[in-house]
Specification:
The chain is an alpha+beta fold. The protein is 54% helix and 19% strand.
């Protein structure tokens, strides 16, 4: 029952962003690491923040409410009031935004409140690529920046919605496409650094390789290989922004056979080279 209610609230957020995205103004973004904060009331104009804790844990005291945040938690918060954050060892992605009109801000605040009723369910590994992409778009200043960020933000909530649906089916003991997809996605997430064979993946879910390929394409719109490449590039972007690894080390770390192939695929998908992407991310 809780998951079905969460899906309903996530659907509300997705529809709101879709209908009123032209009124969203993206503000700051980035990564917050191992530092507490204590800020007074920030603005009379309502502002919102979506955060994702990649590692560690911390507590946020916002407008008199305590939010305990653990690894892989996603929170959508209204941040116009004063806030206090504990320190500790953690890595937190964040994106701040506002709306052009008070009416839209008030309505979106209602969405936030209804979504915050399910904090324990908003927990999912593997979302860092969404935040890295939004951060890159926010600071790179390329054409159609805001439109691209809206697409990524909406994709993030759609991902949460779909994983929630998969979790609902799994907890109800159902079998079928969603369960096989859940198993395959988890397997790829855990093993993307290794050479992967379609037959081994098919054996994992007890399906014929050709049949698995067809089901996966129908469910995701991508082949398993296409999905795996995008997953590896997403992991590479994280390493480019958060480490000083060489391009060759990142290529090998994320499952590519060599640096040349990695750079070629990266530019095909991102429009820039890995080096250009790394230079666009500011130091923490």
């Amino acid at each position: 029952m809780q998951n079905s209610q969460l899906q309903k609230q996530l659907s509300e957020v997705i529809d709101f962003i879709c209908c009123h995205g032209s009124s969203i103004r993206f503000l700051s973004s980035g990564v917050w690491v191992d530092r507490g904060w204590d800020t007074p009331k920030q603005s009379a104009k309502p502002m919102f923040e979506i955060i994702y804790l990649l590692s560690g844990q911390t507590r946020i005291y916002l407008n008199g409410i305590t939010h305990a945040v653990k690894k892989y938690d996603v929170h959508l918060l209204e941040i116009s009031g004063s806030s206090l954050g504990e320190g500790g060892h953690f890595q937190m992605y964040y994106l701040d935004f506002s709306f052009d009109t008070p009416d839209l801000a008030d309505r979106f605040y209602g969405c936030c409140c209804r979504l915050s009723a399910y904090p324990e369910s908003m927990n999912l590994a593997g979302l860092e690529s969404y935040f890295l992409e939004m951060h890159f778009e926010n600071i790179a200043g390329q054409e159609f920046r805001r439109q691209k960020m809206l697409c990524i933000l909406q994709d993030l909530f759609i991902c949460l919605y779909r994983r929630c649906a998969i979790s609902t089916d799994h907890s109800a003991g159902r079998s079928g496409r969603q369960q096989f997809l859940y198993d395959v996605l988890n397997y790829l997430e855990q093993n993307y650094t290794y050479p992967l064979c379609l037959k081994n993946i098919a054996d994992l879910v007890h399906l014929n390789p050709r049949y698995l390929s067809r089901l996966f394409k129908e469910a995701t719109g991508l082949t398993i290989q296409q999905y795996l490449i995008r997953l590896r590039i997403g992991k590479a972007k994280k390493l480019l922004s958060a480490t000083s690894y060489s391009i060759t080390d990142i290529a090998l770390e994320t499952g590519f056979c060599d640096c040349q192939h990695f750079c070629k695929v990266f530019k095909q998908l991102e429009g820039i080279t890995p080096t250009q992407y790394g230079r666009s991310i500011p130091s923490n």
